[in-house]
Amino acid sequence: MGSLKHPAGGPGWYDRRISEDPRAFARMLSFLPPTVRAVAAFLMLVANTLFWCLLLFALALVKLVLPFAAVRAAIDPMLNGVATRWIAGNSAWMRLTQRTAWDVQGLEGFEYRGWYMVCANHQTWVDIFVLQHLFNRRIPLLKFFLKHELIWVPVMGLAWWALDFPFMRRHSDQYLRKHPEKRLEDLETTRRACAKFALLPTSVMNFVEGTRFTPDKHAAQRSPYRHLLKPKAGALALSLNALGDRFDSMIDVTIVYPGGAPSFWQFLRGDVERIVVRVDRHAIPPEFCSGNYMADSRLRKRVQAWLHELWQRKDRRIDELLAATAPGAQGADAPR
Fold first, then answer.
1. How far apart are CA 299 and CA 293, in angstroms?
2. Where does the pLDDT of residue 68 fall: very low under 50, low under 70, confident under 90, or very high at 90 and above?
3. Are 135 and 112 a contacting pair, CB within 8 Å?
4. Is the pTM for the entire model greater than 0.90?
5. CA angle centred on 204, ends 180 and 150, rounded to 5°
6. What DSSP state is assigned to residue 275?
7. Concatenated DSSP letters for 35-80?
8. Which residues pair with 203 in a beta bridge?
9. Per-residue pLDDT tens for 102-146?
């Protein structure tokens, strides 16, 4: 038999072509019925998670038993490296099982060794997979502010704890009026988390809406935006105050699902035909990084006004993207 010759482009050309065309890669499993494809994707996610979490927990145990600065300095990059490989594994099964067309702009020019504040609209758990898939190895590992209840999620709760994800106790305004001392809990949590983030290049991810968008929440809030909930500036402002001298810029991410925000099961089934993402960078006003957000009412108003203006632009952009990707719209079938 003759030897197998590589196509034009040399060895590895086929691998590069597959990785650059997710829909071509997905043809490998496109013959499966959607439910079977979802089960296959879920099993690959579980296997990938358990494999990397075993190593993650072993490293975290070393850090727990030996709580010294030198040990943390050695272990933390390893923990982030494990998480990065877990995300890469998720991207692999996504390419293998999804037929999604990705329309993405604005991912150029980032530094892997730097600090970034990342802000995005939030509609579904799928948002997290989208963000991790797009930013993995482009910027440092994304660290999320999580609801405290999520620490009890099997396996992942412990993994988030090992990776120093901050867990926040969310209280209603009515509760905080009765218990004003509780306002300091999240402040202290944010400060402790940012002290750890300062030791290693980190991307601090903040869903400033505080929860996933739903029509009911939108109506209950009487939100002034068409596609967004009201943004909450607290955790963002506290992070800027604690790490402001390190942040390179604000990364503003707009995520749009032209077919509607999918559930995680729909995502696993491969029902998401198209995901549109736009990434912008904004300079962070210097006074946000040096002032006292909790004590200075004028600073609070400036931060809130800045975030409101950003959210207005995001709302208009979502309108434009939905109009551009609507059936029959010119260019709607030309993903980038």
1. 6
2. confident
3. no
4. no
5. 60
6. E
7. HHHHHHHHHHHHHHHHHHHHHHHHHHHHHHHS--HHHHHHHHHHHH
8. 116, 142
9. 999 999 888 888 889 999 999 999 999 999 999 999 999 998 877
Direct distance between the N- and C-terminal alpha carbons of the chain, in angstroms, rounded to an integer: 40
Which pair of tokens denotes residue 296? 């200075």
Beta bridge partners of 142: 203
Q: How much of the chain exceeds pLDDT 70, in percent?
A: 83
**φ, ψ (nearest 5 deg) of residue 293:** -65, -35
CA distances from 124 to 55, 127, 188, 244, 317 (A): 29, 6, 28, 29, 19
With 0-12 / 13-18 / 19 or more C-beta atoms within 10 angstroms meaning exposed / middle / buried, residue 100 is buried
Place of tokens 């590992």: 141
Q: How far is the C-alpha of 46 from the C-alpha of 247, rounded, in Å?
A: 34
Closest CA to 275 of 133, 114, 179: 133
Give the CA-trace dihedral at 138, 140, 141, 147, to 10 degrees. -120
